[in-house]
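Dear Dr. H.,

I hope your travels went smoothly. While you were away I took the liberty of generating a structure for the chain from your last submission, since the lab meeting agenda had it listed for discussion. I wanted you to have the full record in hand beforehand rather than looking at slides cold. The sequence, exactly as received, is reproduced here:
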Amino acid sequence: MDTWKRDLQQSIKRGEDFLAKSFDVDAQEINAVAKEYPVRITPHWQKLMKEKGDPIWLQVVPEVKELDEASGVDDPLHEDIDSPVPGITHRYPDRVLFLVTSVCAVYCRFCTRKRLVGRSADISDKTIEMGLKYIRETPRVRDVLLSGGDPLMLSDAKLEYIISSLRAIPHVEVIRIGTRIPVFLPSRITDDLCAMLKKYHPFYMNLHFNHPDEITEEVKAACGKLADAGIPLGAQTVLLKGINDNVEIMKKLMHKLLTIRVRPYYLYQADMTKGTAHFRTDPSVGLKIIKGLRGHTTGFAVPQYIIDAPGGGGKIPILPDSVVEWGEKEILLRNFEGGIYHYPRPEPDGVDGDRQKPTPQFVEMDLR
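The corresponding predicted structure, in token form, is as follows:
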């Protein structure tokens, strides 16, 4: 048996499993939540759980708060409404989301797709064929994001069938996978898997990291194998209350990601999914974090802060206010320290006069 499959077999799935491994939990509460939203925690992740309530623990251990029906909805992003055929969400003009499995190595308690993952039979071959057919027959689709569940939970053979089928479609230029497997189950990133993926470039991976403690030697090795296979790696992070909702933790995470050849990509505001309200911060927290990163660290260490708009509005970047005023002759800009600077606008006739001379003085601090 493959090592990664053996690791899955040794995962925690019930309250009694926590107790057997000496974790301090209420097994009945765990099981009550697990009836509605499944539980699985791999041995690798178990080793990172140092104490009850730490950032690693909070992401994966069920809480009765998840059963709160008062806030949130099952499908906040309207993925099902924007689905022309089962398994496909087509919200943006030139790209689709293609759900190829409903299974994950570990079930995040804040998951946007709590309505789907691990709760029913896996996605059928028939559904996958319907998705492939839709993509073949929709020429404007140039970019396909495979997600789920986690696509790397599929066997190499099944994953290659899907990827090779997509690569055979002339108008599909880019194939991506969204995965948390390198973080949750690094043993899954085998030489055989990397050799297979390498055949289908251009191929990209969006990895999911939320806290610097997730970046271990095993994770570094897994990401190294993928990067050595020529796969560009980007990181998506969810802003989570009590886990990563401050500048210093986020900066440390972004710095550590770059050391393992993973580039920060998106910082997501937590979605309004039923059973996840206790994870959501106010959006002002995310803006404060971005302000604390921009200018204070390397530019490509700063992710885009995104709200995926409820009701299917799509991803909307949320930015600190850098333009203070649009004047007729110049604009006023705020830098990362809060200083205000003048930037002259071009002359209508294209001739740069005195207006183009930069204003040298430091005008004012922190106009907010």
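Two observations you may find useful: The longest strand covers residues 233-239. Residues 355-368 have pLDDT under 50 and may be disordered.

With kind regards,
E. W.
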